[in-house]
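tool_log.txt
---
The assistant was asked to compare two proteins side by side. It first ran the structure predictor on the initial sequence, then on the second. Raw inputs and outputs are pasted verbatim so the downstream comparison step can read them without reformatting.
(1)
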Amino acid sequence: MNPAVHLRSVDISFAVPGKPPFRAVSGAELVVQPGEFVSIVGPTGCGKSTLLNAAAGLLKPSAGDVQIEGAALEGLNPHAGYLFQSDALMPWKTAGDNVAIGLEVAGTPRREALARAHEWLTRVGLRGFADRYPHMLSGGQRKRVALAQVLIRDPDILLMDEPFGPLDAQTRLIMHELLLRLWSQDRKAVLFVTHDLEEAIALSDRVVIMSTGPEARIIGDFPIPLERPRDIAEIKLTPEFLRLHRDIWHLLKEQVMQAYGLQPEATESTGDA
């Protein structure tokens, strides 16, 4: 079976007027298998979202290539649904219309699209909210609508760019549980970008670490052997979770400090002065 996403020796550069191109990402190698949940973690500005945009077909690599389900990606990724940090809800449309619009654009009759949208709103815990407008919903409720908006199209791949970053801690926990429950039902491939190492470990099958930029690269790939299904709140208290967090943070911390121009803490010398 072909990988759902395969980034092969990907470089991504951006033109800078009057200067040489800025190489944001260098030699990125990443494989996401069908049904696998992979998170990318790294310092601010290291190119996590840039890699995600390459997998979505929003950016074309300057070197290397992106393969989706065994075929070279040309243009937008037709197999992927993209959930951004800021929701893409249209304020003049109801929740039901926002969820249904992807089906309508694809040619599904409006009545059928709305019926399926109501089903998805129920699945994300918003039964009876189809007639609400985005300004009438909380941040967590809008995020649920956005999730239903993506999943109703039944993509093979979910690309998620810090989707829960703006939410408060309790709402994020609820969204984590909801995402894992929905994901466990059909096990889509997920590529998830986050700054939150705890979030990455709790959700994922693997956590990938990127170095600080420019010319950021993938420097770590950690399997997460925590049993599923997972209770997000409980699993963070287990010794195995704490061990994984310690091991991954040991590598990540150095990159984060470099990104902020800080020096690693000096270790105490055991030799003679």
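(2)
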Amino acid sequence: MKTIDLSIKIGYCQMEELPADEQQLVEAAVRATKNSYSPYSHFAVGAALRLENGTVVTGANQENAAYPSGLCAERTAIFSAQAQYPDQPVTALAIAARNGGSLVKSPIVPCGACRQVAVEIEDRYKHPIRVFLYGTDGIYVVDTIKDLLPLYFVGDAMK
């Protein structure tokens, strides 16, 4: 049996270490947490993405009493951007969360479904998505969503 070694590099920084445009994107994700409808989990997630043309689109998680009917913040933002700007690649995505009203200390990471959706967007446009995962203690910075889902599944896998 052969072993395959997969490795990723994740940056870790404080907000003030980011360039101004990246700080603004992270701050938009933090503000988007206020748009969450999360009466069941009380875990409010906000996402903000930047398109290649500079447009910023935000999203927030939306829960429902029929639990699987809700949608995560990341997919809310991505699907909204794709519906409004179908010719624009996503260049960056920031995610933040509140638990019980307070911002989380550790950087928040996207669920598997959101990683899969983002990977397909990255693959569709052949453009990496830079990811900022916010926590009050620091921010993870990832150069491509594929680093968060290294064994990804996209359309070419079905050929």
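---
observation on (2): Residues 11-158 form a domain with the Cytidine Deaminase; domain 2 fold (CATH 3.40.140.10). The chain has one domain: 11-158.
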